[in-house]
Design brief:
It holds the Pfam family His_Phos_1. This protein is an alpha/beta fold. It contains six helices and six strands. The chain has one domain: Phosphoglycerate mutase-like (Rossmann fold), CATH 3.40.50.1240.
């Protein structure tokens, strides 16, 4: 099984420099261009069988562009939504730091300011990844359109890392990761591929 994991394109929150999380911002004009470039690359290089997406606007809009390019319908999964950042959603970083400061120690089970705990976040990633894998055959190619935070947590789940792992995989706008599940192992083919953006007009 091949799993193509994609982060959404640039959103309005990226320009506003606010905490996004569950705040539901749409793509920018550039984000739409990035998503089209990504979709063209994937439609040429992969035969995608299913597309799974977070229902949040920035991911669903990216997934719709991919769906149009591949003629594959979208399956929306709440489990692919970004980290639930509770009261921080939509706040400027300065206001969030002032009103909701990060404690010196944050335990994996701790839930603050209406957020998910890290254990809850990891459990959600484990559950949705298991569901997607179980629903598809070993020769399938699956696309997952999601968000930077949940993608990082899906990486930890895919690699069977401990809950307190400090691994962080960066993903740029429409960054593509290619994973593979074979009879012997889980493989990382590549991470954060952004070459489809090389000739993109950023204006």
């Amino acid at each position: 099984m091949d799993i193509i994991v994609i982060r959404h394109g640039q959103s309005e929150a990226d320009i506003l420099n606010v905490h996004e999380g569950r705040a539901d911002f749409p793509l920018t004009k550039l984000g739409n261009k990035q998503s089209l470039a990504m979709s063209n690359f994937l439609s040429i290089n992969y035969n995608i069988d299913k597309i799974y997406s977070s229902p949040l606007k920035r991911a669903s809009e990216t997934a719709k562009i991919l769906s149009n390019a591949t003629n594959i319908p979208i399956i929306y999964e709440n489990g692919l939504m970004e980290f639930n950042n509770g009261l921080l959603a939509g706040l400027s970083r300065e206001e969030a730091n002032e009103r909701y400061p990060e404690p010196a120690i944050r335990w994996p089970h701790t839930s603050m300011y209406g957020m998910e705990s890290m254990i809850e976040f990891r459990s959600r990633a484990e559950s949705i990844l298991s569901k997607i894998v179980s629903e598809n055959s070993s020769d399938s190619t699956i696309a997952i359109v999601a968000h930077g935070g949940i993608i990082n947590m899906l990486f930890r789940s895919f690699l069977e890392l401990p809950i307190n792992s400090q691994l962080f995989i960066s993903t740029g706008d429409t960054g593509i990761h290619h994973w593979q599940i074979t009879s012997c192992c889980h493989r990382i083919i590549y991470t954060n591929k952004l070459s489809h953006l090389d000739t993109l007009d950023s204006k």
